[in-house]
Amino acid sequence: GARAAGGSRGGGWGDEEHTAAIRERIRAVRASYAGDDGRAHSSSTASASSSSPSTSGRGAVPPWSRPDRHAVYDPVAFDEYFSRRPLKVMYRFLEVVTRLTDVGARVYVKRGTIEERAGRMRRHFTELGPAFVKLGQVLSTRADLLPASYCEQLGQLQDNLPPASREHALALLRRELDAPPEAFFERIPETPVAAASLAQVYRARTVDGGLDVAVKLQRPGLAESVALDATILRLIARIVRRFVRLRSDVVGIVDELIGRIFDEMDYRREADSIRRFRDVYRVGGGAGSGLEGLVRAPAVLDELSTRAVLVMEWIDGARLTDVDAVAAAGLTPSDLLERGVRCSLHQLLETGFMHSDPHPGNLLVAPDGSLVYLDFGMVVEVSPGTRRAMMRGLVGFVNRDAHGLVGDLRTLDFLPRDVDHNAAGAALRGVFEASAGRAGAGEDAGGGAVVTLPSGSAVRGTNDFLGVVSQLSAALLVHDFRLPPYFARILRALAALEGTATGIDREFEVIERAYPYVLAQLLADKDPEMRDILRRLVLEPCGTSVRWSRVRRLLNAYVESGGGISGVKSKVNAAGAARSEPFGGCRAAETAAGLAAGARALASGLDYSRDEDDDAAAAAAAVRDAMAYVMSPSGAPLRVTLVRDFLDALDAYLEVMEVMEDQGSGGGDPERDAFFGAEDLERLAETGRSLYLRAPTAWTSVAVNAVMREEACEMAGRVAQGVSERVTRDNTRRLVKRMVEHFFASKP
Fold first, then answer.
1. Which tens digits make up the pLDDT trace of 192-205?
2. 10: left (phi over 0), alpha (psi -120 to 50) or beta
């Protein structure tokens, strides 16, 4: 249930000294049994090895049972082993083909509705066992291969099965630990708290009033079952590949799928992943405000964990859908969703180490309000190059940059290297236009919005990750669009995250929440490639005009993602600038303190930037790089545009101030088509102020270096001339009044 493999701070886990003593006692007990039985065990093992057939004798010994290999995915060895057991292969092959043929025949004759056919496919996959459950879960992310209704049905696959016997659990523990289970556990219950196709979990307690633990055990006969299905699936894939031209490497997908199952069967890998995750999100681990210390995973009891046994801290937590329990922890479901989305994006875009299955059963809310991730059997590693390409791709998709997106898809291996860039870009522009117009909006079989492409094809038009893949696949079908095997696990993680979010709040849009985080990452990343993405984002293709709406969104995203004053822990840096909500939140006092800190650092010549917020300093570096471009010879046309835009914005602001005075203070900000409204400009200024206060030393250095440039002086002269032509006594009075009201009022 909701309180499966995890741990609580109760039961002694919060007492480090007590936990260390328990670990030491367990090591001593295992050592004593190893001393008593080790030599006899080694002798019997050697005897069994010498009397057993040679491992090279055409599959006489199961590859997964060999002591030198254990459960390693080796399709060649599997083929060799099962070639000596044709009846077993034939029986299973007929069962698999019969069920898959039933699905195919119903699709061919269109029997029943598409939802009924998809539901039947889901039931068949469930009954075929763990390999097909995992296959169905992977296929649920393949919007490039299957209709939306099938993806949605397969996304609901659950692999809950009747538990194996307690006798199996005791025998496995005895074999893996080389000692009787009662030497370590007070009691193993009759029934596990959870039983799935790959494992089952018991709640237990270590002896002598020790620790509450979750004991995860591998199911019996699992390796042979999965190896047999791997052999059959590879055979079917080779047959399909021979007669049907597919855009995806189906044999490679099978190898990726089954290989991951075998990885899941080695609990030492899972233990390593848990330790890595805990290290990232511990206090002081560098995950940042909003995540550090607020996200965790159960601790692992390494002394009792092996390839087939994983013993972990037990956590008494509640599901995210348990509104009362979430409220008792002082949170709302929306708070948890925001944290979960940010955590997944942090894993994907910053650490490159991602939990691949964040569905509701693998997420708990601990009594202290922390978000707990369970089940690390499925994780994915994402290289820095892939992470940067994904950020570029998301920015390109959201901003409808077809030309740039084609290049990013090629880098990510979604498109072949020799793709016709112009033709693919034109196809993408077609789907963007169709999506924007929703000319064919309606309801598809799965209940989501439909977009009709210029070709007449109807695709999933929802603004989620599966919808994005569906639109890209349909638009680029003739350009050999394919989903690379590595991305299937990433997409599964994102789809699981979206499913969790929309199950709690149907209005929650993950992509919309993800985009500001990606923008903030772009602003803080010092990599030259990220700087190029920023330039492409905020400048028109001609390079002489600024997309101010994107600049505003970029800066707001940076603040809202944790960069604002309210998002930083209360402290004072070495330069003396306040970082939280000092002075009762009075903007003038905060700003004065920040300016004083910057001036002090500048006058003393000392470097205080190391004591300031790293991300804010990185954002300052991004602006410094941008200013270097603006002040370069190449930026001359852009400097002219910036002066013009500033004066246009001033015109708009002064006009709005006059209208507001005529209408009274409650007159509001009339909409303008030409440029920002007054509220837009003030919000942009407040964002810039917040950014400055996070790293006054870094920003002061940027500002001083910029104003000392000859080009900056030239721009300042043009601005001064334009301002002098616009200034009157009345609008000066209005402007000063507005500034006083803004800066000397406390923040809401």
1. 998 887 889 999 99
2. beta
DSSP 87-104: HHHHHHHHHHHHHHHHHH
Of the residues 74, 144, 357, 680, only one is catalytic, namely 357
Rounded to 5 degrees, φ, ψ at 456 are: 100, -10
Q: Has 357 been annotated as catalytic? A: yes
- 168 close to 175: Cβ distance less than 8 angstroms: no
Contacts of 746 (CB under 8 A, 6+ apart): 584, 585, 586
Query: pLDDT digit string (tens) for 648-692?
Result: 877 777 777 777 666 654 444 444 433 455 566 666 677 777 777
Q: Left (φ > 0), alpha (ψ -120 to 50) or beta: where does 545 sit?
A: beta
Contact between 516 and 556 (Cβ < 8 Å): yes
DSSP lists the bridge partners of residue 216 as 201, 310
Look at residue 27 in the predicted model and tell me its pLDDT: 92
Instruction: Give the burial class of 67: count Cβ atoms within 10 A of its Cβ; 0-12 exposed, 13-18 middle, 19 or more buried.
Output: exposed
Give the pairing type, strands 379-381 and 450-452: unpaired
Amino acid identity, residue 482?
Answer: R
Local structure of 237: helix, strand or coil: helix
Bridge partners (DSSP) listed for residue 451: 459
Assess contact for 609 and 688: CB atoms under 8 A.
Answer: no
pTM over 0.90: no
* Better-scored residue on pLDDT, 28 or 157: 28
**Bridge partner list, 310:** 216
Which residues are 218's β-sheet partners? Answer: 199
**Contacts within 8 Å (CB) and 24+ apart, 183-191:** 183/29, 183/33, 183/207, 184/26, 184/29, 184/304, 185/213, 185/215, 188/215, 190/166, 191/163, 191/166
Do β-strands 371-373 and 363-365 pair in parallel, antiparallel, or remain unpaired? antiparallel
Q: What is the CA radius of gyration of the chain?
A: 30
The 10 Å CB-count burial string (b at 16+, else e) for 185-220 is: beebeeebbbbbbbbbbbbbbbbeebbbbbbbbbbe
